[in-house]
Amino acid sequence: MTTVRFDAVTLEVLWTRIISIVDEAAKAIVRTSFSTLSNEANDFACVLADARGFALAQNSGSIPSFIATLPATVRHFQRALGPDLRPGDVLITNDAWMGTGHMSDVCVVKPIFHRDRLAAFSATTAHMPDIGGRVRAIEAREIFEEGLHIPLAKLVHAGRTDDTLVALIRANVRTPDQTVGDIWAQASANELMERRVQALLDEYRLDGLEALGDELFGRSERAMREAIRAVPDGTYRYGFRTDGVDVPFEFRLALTVAGETVTADYTGTSPQQPRAINCVLAYTYAMTAYAIRCALLPGLPNNEGMYRPVVVTAPEGCLLNPRFPASVVSRSVTGHYVPVLVFGALRRVLPDRVMAGAGSPLWNVTQTGVREDGRPYTNVMFFNGGMGATPRKDGEHVLSWPSNISSTPVEVAERNSPLFFHYKRMRPGSGGAGRFRGGLGQDVLIESRSERPVIVAFMAERVTSPAPGFAGGGDGGLGDVQINGRSIDHRKQHVLKRGDRVLVRTPGGGGYGPAARRAGALDARDRLLGYVAPSRLPGARPVARSGRTSIRVRNATLRRILSTSGPASLPSDFAERHDTYAHGAAPRVKKAISAGGPPPARSSPAGAPARRRGTGGAPARD
Question: Phi and psi for 47 in degrees, rounded to 5?
Fold first, then answer.
């Protein structure tokens, strides 16, 4: 057996191969999973780790919270089952403290053997459509109310499935076919990674992935430490209050930069609660490391090396480090505040590297009932608020951050549920004002068409405490949940009858910089597009479509804005980022910006007829 020398070319080839392996596994989950949580919402991850349990790579479209939690799960399995691992084993758990932070995520791990030696681990995790217990209710007071607990166990023993465990899972969930089907989709992705890794080891005559891992980890760790050294030493503090339950919750962070390490201390955060909003330390760590990476080195690969300079502490028994058996199923309504704390602490020393508060934590509507044939069902629908603005651009609208989860398509939700969506639209004015405006939230009106009662539970935040603006920017708009026109207590479960309507209003993101410094052209564009208020500018007219109003922007109006405000007042990438606002006018706007003048009038391409055939000689229309 020869040793491969990892020159630059070989290293790049191997790194690309590893990324392709986890990305191919992710596509396999999307193709084979039974529930929309994986094949539509993207709530899963694939990770490849070396034989020590250190993460080599994660699929490109993964969830940030899984960056650190899933490799830790692999190491928990190593400690518990290491001597008993055999080729053909498939491991499973949904333990909240050793998994991803709540039991809704099932982790599946497969030890990869090569020539009778443990060479690596393939690992996947995915949010199940149902895991039993109360329906994702924040009202749960301890974890035993939240569903089936699968300890560190073997789903497959040396190629033989544990049928008793499978039967136990099926008997404890409302959606046995979907839940077990998704687990087997994960197992198939694990097996795919196993085959690809074994082929890679054979091709390059490697015994394992540790040497490759050390090279990758060392490079990432050096890059992260260098980025930390560029930050002035000191302790940077930030905190805020959130909606809470009976009273607001306090979140506090002291972020200490010392040389080439950074320590996040959450002392001062409110104590754990007898509600399902507690966030285990593994999830807190993952969100902290992710935010630090975003601020300091956003292009750094996701592997073991990036974590090594980051230390996270939180008092045991607080919201961000609860003791067992705390309820945790809705841990994201707490954990998603962590990146905002990190950015808030860094904004005084790195103002050009952080984003204002986002309209997150992620919103969620879970509904369950009984179909006409008597079978129970559960559906989980995600809805996103607006992202915070940055020092360079407006916040993105209705985009998930920091979760990277897709909103549930209306067509899919209506196919899987006895629900009718009256509308799903951005909410004007919900983005925080500023030199750069916060992203907009959305309004979604849903009606129950079920003849049987439907139970709904909500995950909603920023209903009383808005997303903060930074550097003088305004706070984002508040969210709200209404049933039949009245705001409700979204911390409780509710029962819908046929004809009941639920209005979900997600919050907007915070603005960045003083609103007085906003470019006039951007303000005009916002009014034209209805982002601020229904447009009343000349040249824009409302168009009624299925009971909704949209704004049709005439090209003449855009030319007038550019000619009066001047291209210098617009960001250099204005045309690329807003290339749908004028029915094809964007390329001409881009040309005008680069040329320093208003867009030229539209003309026919050289050699093209001015009139279309078959239209009776009528002039061609835009």
Answer: -135, 140
Task: State the DSSP H helix or E strand holding residue 363, giving kind and residue range, or none if neither.
Answer: strand 363-370
Residues in the chain: 622
What's the rounded Cα separation, in Å, for the pair 611 and 187?
59
Name the 3-class secondary structure at 355. coil
Instruction: Give residue 281's pLDDT.
Output: 97
Hey, is 193 helix, strand or coil?
Answer: helix
Q: Show the beta-strand stretches assigned E in 116-274.
A: 117-127, 153-157, 160-161, 234-242, 249-258, 261-265
- Summarised one tens digit per residue, pLDDT across range 219-271 is 999 999 999 999 999 999 999 999 999 899 999 999 999 999 999 999 999 99
Write down the pTM of the prediction: 0.85
Strand runs labelled E in 75-193: 90-93, 105-114, 117-127, 153-157, 160-161
Tokens of 58: 């994660």
Amino acid of residue 513: G
Distance CA 221, CA 229 (A): 12
Residue-range domain boundaries for the chain: 8-208, 231-354, 359-516, 522-595
Alpha-carbon span 527 to 538, nearest angstrom = 11
Instruction: Return d(Cα 615, Cα 449) in angstroms, integer.
Output: 45
Which residue has tokens 């239209």?
615
Residue type for position 524: A
Q: What is the pLDDT of residues 86-115, one digit of tens each?
A: 999 999 999 999 999 999 999 999 999 999
> Nearest-CA neighbor of 396 among 360, 365, 421, 423?
360
Question: What is the Cα gyration radius of the chain?
Answer: 26
- The answer to which of 106-120, 375-389, 544-558 has the lowest mean pLDDT is 544-558
